[in-house]
Every structure is written in structure tokens, then in C-alpha cells.
Specification:
- Helices cover 43% and strands 13% of the residues.
- It has 372 residues and is an alpha+beta fold.
- The protein has 2 domains: 2-223, Endonuclease III, domain 1 (Orthogonal Bundle), CATH 1.10.340.30; 234-370, Nucleoside Triphosphate Pyrophosphohydrolase (Alpha-Beta Complex).
- Strands 1, 2, 3, 4, 5, 6, 7 and 8 form an 8-stranded mixed sheet that branches.
- Helix 1 (2-23) crosses helix 11 (182-195), helix 2 packs antiparallel against helix 8 and helix 9 (144-153) packs across helix 11.
- It is elongated.
- The N and C termini lie far apart (73 Å).
């Protein structure tokens, strides 16, 4: 019985690796087995398409080529290089973990499963990916692509949203991982899920392991995997003030910095307040900016609406452009800092925008605002 399992394992791995050798994409993090590069790419790839990640990865590695460079960098610089990828806590966790590697492991990413699992933001999948791809340790790395491939291949109706399903797939994979090429096997499974065993209309006619795929044989490949629907994010309606004025002959707009904790911590944004359909936005926004920043509004006009979806909140944003009188110079705000504004508020020009890290939706609002 053991010999039969071994034969099946070899057959599955051999066909998968042969396919991968012919079809694998030329991706920048595959140019070498640098564990730092593998680590950065895997964090970036979480819930983000490969095509989107490639330029971000290349810019990030160019700016922080080594673990030492990332560990020593100001957090603001790291967040700026992450701008547009979203999930900024991942960038913060990555830097915190890199600093731990610098302090405790001499700047070398651990190749030990227990040690690497203690690093901040490194879960079972990321640990498995680094260990197998960078160090050729026969550890499974089960992401969404691998869950989809294996639940179809083994005809499993387990809910892939549950942690116990990931553990079950890891246990199925362990005897299948070839000792001579665990890193290629890991990447081949991911590649198969990304290019062939796709969520809808899987391309079974070109799949290298379709002959033994139990879901394909049963004709139910499109029914798998089973995944319970995530709770819908709650709707939140907000009114946004794009406030502009002329300062020294240059048009500038108002940004505020979010608190250091919580959603979008420490990032910059246009002022905004929560509202509902029974409220009149313009007076509320005017009162908010006058009370918080000491800035009186003069004229206003409606801009296009925007939306932004987080994992748990769906922002519906009504945006208004406000103008400040050119003759206005002071304000009555408390805790006055730069340019007579509160410490967490700035007048910023387009040319200065590169010094500030903004969530993608506010970058879009600002581009819209300054284009007119």
C-alpha cells in the first residue's frame, strides 16, 4: 500500500513539475532564491494579482534591496513605497518582522519552521512559501490557489474558509512534495491554480494532472471549492471635503493625518465626516473644517462620488470641492503647528504630494480635484 502511495505521489509531482518547467512565468522574485525577495513577494501577493504586484515589488526592492535597508528605513518611507497596494498593516508587520530578523538572526531569514513562525505577520502559508521556495525545505504552502487545486483534485467538499481545511490539505500535500524540488513543487501548484485551475471555467483540457482529478472525473470541478460567503462589509456614508486655496501663487489642498492606531493608521487623507441621507453635507463639512482647523469655507461645488471597500467597511463617499478666500491667513484652531494649522494637518501642493502616503481612494479624489 505504501509503495502505491509513493508511486501516485511521484506521478503527480513529476507531471506537475514537467508542466511548470515549460509554462512557468518569468517573475522578478523567481530570478533567485533570495528568502527576503520571496518573503516580500508573498506578502504583496496576498489578495493582489501578480500583474499588479510586479512593478510594486521591483520598486520596493530597488528602494530597500536588503533586509538591513528595510529594517533601518523610516516607516513613512516604507508606507510610501507600499502606497496603492492597500492593507498597510502588512507593510508595518513586514518591517517589524524584518527588524526582528536583523536583531535576532543577524539579518538572515530563519530556515527553521519554528523560528520563522514567530515573526510578525508570518502565518503558516507565508512560512511554508519561504521555507520551500527559498530553502528547499519540504513544507507545504497552502494559499487560495492551492486550496482550489487540491479540493478539486481530491474531490473535497470541505469549506475552504475554515482553518481545519487548510490543515487537512497540508497533510495531504506532505507526502506528495518531492524532496529534490520542494520549491518548484510549491510554485507549480500556485501557478496551476493561477493559470489553469481557475475559479470559474477551469481549463481542464490543458491541466497536466486532469487525468487523475477526482472532481474532473466526477464532472463537478465547477462546483468546487466550497466556501462560505464572507460577511458583507457594512455600508458607511461619508462626506469628503477637497479644500483648496492659493498660497504664494501656488494652488494647495488640505490633507490631514489619521491617528496612529486603527483603520489606515498614520496615512494622509482629505477631511471627511460620516453622514446619512437626511443630512445636508455642505454646512456640516464647513462647520467641521472651521471648528477643527480654523478654516472658513467660501464657495463649494459637487465632485464625482467615490467608493472604497475594506474587508469590513464599504465607504460611499460624496465629495465636494471647497474654496478658501485668498486673503485668509490665520485660523482659530487649537494645537497649531506648521503653517498655522493643527499638527496633523497640512496645505500640500501637487509637487509635494510625493512626500505623503495616501490611501488609493484619496489619491483618486485629489487627481480629480486638481484636474479642474
Amino acid at each position: 500500500m505504501g509503495g502505491q502511495n509513493e508511486s501516485m505521489s511521484d506521478s503527480f509531482a513529476e507531471r506537475l513539475l514537467a508542466w511548470f518547467g515549460e509554462r512557468k512565468r518569468d517573475l522578478p522574485w523567481r530570478k533567485n532564491k533570495n528568502p527576503y525577495h520571496v518573503w516580500v513577494s508573498e506578502i504583496m501577493l496576498q489578495q493582489t494579482r501578480v500583474e499588479t504586484v510586479i512593478p510594486y515589488f521591483e520598486r520596493f526592492i530597488a528602494r530597500f534591496p536588503t533586509i538591513h535597508d528595510l529594517a533601518e528605513a523610516p516607516e513613512a518611507d516604507v508606507l510610501k513605497m507600499w502606497e496603492g497596494l492597500g492593507y498597510y498593516s502588512r507593510a508595518r508587520n513586514l518591517q517589524a518582522a524584518v527588524r526582528e530578523v536583523q536583531a535576532s538572526y543577524g539579518g538572515v531569514v530563519p530556515s527553521d519552521a519554528v523560528q520563522i513562525a514567530t515573526l510578525k505577520g508570518v502565518g503558516p502559508y507565508t512560512a511554508g512559501a519561504i521555507l520551500s521556495i527559498a530553502y528547499d525545505v519540504p513544507e507545504p504552502a497552502v494559499d487560495g490557489n492551492v486550496l482550489r487545486v487540491m479540493t478539486r483534485y481530491k474531490l473535497l467538499y470541505d469549506d475552504i474558509a475554515k482553518a481545519k481545511t487548510r490543515v487537512r490539505i497540508e497533510n495531504i500535500l506532505r507526502p506528495l512534495i518531492p524532496l529534490q524540488a520542494p520549491g518548484d513543487f510549491t510554485q507549480a501548484l500556485m501557478e496551476l491554480g493561477s493559470l489553469v485551475c481557475v475559479p470559474k471555467n477551469p481549463k481542464c483540457d490543458i491541466c497536466p494532472v486532469a487525468a487523475d482529478c477526482e472532481a474532473k472525473l466526477a464532472g463537478v470541478q465547477s462546483e468546487l471549492p466550497v466556501k462560505t460567503k464572507a460577511k458583507q462589509p457594512r455600508a458607511e456614508f461619508r462626506a469628503v471635503a477637497f479644500v483648496q486655496r492659493m498660497i504664494g501663487g501656488e494652488r494647495k489642498f488640505l490633507l490631514r493625518r489619521r491617528p496612529e492606531q486603527g483603520l489606515l493608521a498614520g496615512l494622509w487623507e482629505c477631511p471627511h465626516i460620516e453622514h446619512d441621507d437626511t443630512q445636508t453635507d455642505i454646512p456640516l463639512l464647513s462647520e467641521h473644517c472651521a471648528a477643527e482647523y480654523g478654516i472658513p469655507m467660501q464657495r463649494s461645488e459637487r465632485m464625482p462620488d467615490f467608493e472604497h471597500v475594506f474587508s469590513h467597511i464599504h465607504w460611499h463617499l460624496r465629495v465636494y470641492r471647497f474654496h478658501v478666500d485668498d486673503e485668509f491667513h490665520g485660523n482659530d484652531a487649537k494645537h497649531v503647528g506648521v503653517d498655522g494649522l493643527p499638527e496633523h494637518v497640512r496645505w500640500v501642493s501637487v509637487r509635494e504630494l510625493g512626500d505623503y502616503t495616501l490611501p488609493l481612494v484619496f489619491s483618486k479624489i485629489i487627481r480629480q480635484g486638481v484636474s479642474v
